[in-house]
Amino acid sequence: MTDTIHIAQAQAASPCTVVIFGASGDLAKRKLIPALYNLRACGQEVAPNEFAVLGFARRPMALEEFRETARVAAARFSRLELDQKCWREFAASLDYLSGLDDPDGFRHLKERLEQIEAARGLPPNRIYYLSIPPEAVPDCVERLDTAGLIAKPGAANFTRVVVEKPIGTDLDSALEIEGLLCRHFDESQIFRIDHYLGKETVQNLFVLRFANTIFERMWGARNVDHVQITVAESEGVGSRAMYYDPAGALRDMVQNHLMQLLALIAMEPPISLDSDAIRDAKLNVLRALRPLPQVGARDLVVRARYAAGVVDGEQVPGYAHEKGIPPTSHTETFVAFKAAIDNWRWAGVPFYLRTGKRMPARGSIIYIQFKDVPRILFNREKKVPPNALTIRIQPDEGLSFEVLAKQPGLDIAIRPVRMNLRYDSEFSGPSPEAYERLLLDVMSGDHTLFVSAQFVEKSWEFVQSILDLWRDDVTIPMHEYAAGSHGPAAADKLIQADGHEWLDP
Question: Mind telling me the catalytic residues?
Fold first, then answer.
C-alpha cells in the first residue's frame, strides 16, 4: 500500500466569534450552520478550542427558536449525522440578535459581542460573515466602522470580513464595493469567498497539474486540442427569484465559478505554495484572457432561458412562469461562450464554457481533449477517437483518462478505454464540505482559497464586455431551451462551428 505524503497540515484556527449577517437566510441554514457544526463535531484538531456563533439579522427571533432552527438545518444539511451530545455543546455557543436594519443595531451588536466574549472567556477575535445581498454590503461595512467594530491590522486581536459572491452587479459596482472594503479593511482582513474553491475536486486540480509530470508536460497548445468547462444545474430558480432575476447566469455563475475553474486549468506553476503566489498565477490567466472583439462577439456568446419541460419525470414551468419572476424579465438562465488565452502555453487553444439551469442533471466537469494522432498507422483508414481527460467536480467526484487499446481477438480492433478514479471508492471517509474548508481557513487567516481584489476586477472586466454587448445590441436573441434538455441549439452550433461536440456531463 502506498504511503500518503503529507505536504502541509491545516493551519491552527484561533478562538473567535463568528457573526453571521443575514443569519435567518437560506445560506446560513443550508451551508454555514451545518459547516460550523461539522467543524466542531470533527474534533478540536480542526476547530478552534473555543468559538461562538452570533446570528445577526433583521427579524426578531427568540434564542431558543434560533437554536431549534439551526438544529433542524444541521440535521437536514450536515454531511454528518447529528450527535446529541455534540449538538448540545455546539448549540450552547449559538446566540442571536435582531436589528440588522435598526439605527442602533450595530451598537447593540458591539454590546452583545462583548457579553459573549466575557461569558465564554474569548478574546475579541471577530469574523463578520456578510451573507447579505451585494447592495447591502457598503452600508454594513460603514456601520461596522462607525460602531468601532473593526480592529486595525497588526492589533493584538483580529477582525476579518467574509464577502459572498457576487461582489457587485457589474464592473462599476464591484469597484465601488472593493474601494469601500479597502478603505475600512486591510487586504489581509478581507476574504472573498467562492465556495467552488473549497471543493475537494477543485483543490485536487492543483495537485493533478503540478504533482504529476505526465500531465504538466502535456498541458498546453502543443498537445491540447480544446477545453470544455460545464457547470449544469438541474434545479430551476426555486425560491431565489428575488436574488436570481436581477443577476442571471452570467453574473451568478460565469463571473465567479467558471472564471475560477478557467484560471485553475490554465494557470502557470506558481513559484511556491504561498497564497499570494498561487493567487498571482491565477490572476495572470485573466490578464491573458482575450477581450471579446467589437465585431463578431455576438457569434462567440449564446444566452438563453429555459421554457417548460420535464425534469426527473416531472413537468416543470418555464422561467417566465416561475413564482416571483416579473413579466418584463429578460434574464438569461443559460450562457455559453468561446474564450481564448493569449499566452505562450495556450495560444490557439479554444476554451468553451457553459452553464445553465434546468439541465437534465446536475454536474460540473472539465473536459480536456488532446490532439488527434497523425493520419498514419492506426489512424490511416478511419479516424480514431482522441485521448481525453475528464475531471468531474460534482456530483460524482473524480477523473477519467481515455486511451485507445486493442480489443482482444484475432483482428486488430481498437476501442477507447476509460481509466477511472472515483473519490468515493478510492478514499475512505466523507470529504469535508466546501464551506467547512473555507470557514476553517478564515479562522486561521489563510487566503489561498479566496479571491483577490485584482481577480474580481479582471473577471468583471470580461463579463462587463458581454453585458455591454447585450445592452447595446438589441438584435441579439434570447434563445429558449426546454427544461430537461442540454441547452439551446445555438450553443451546439457555437462549438460545432469548430468541429467539436459538447461532452454530456
Answer: 257
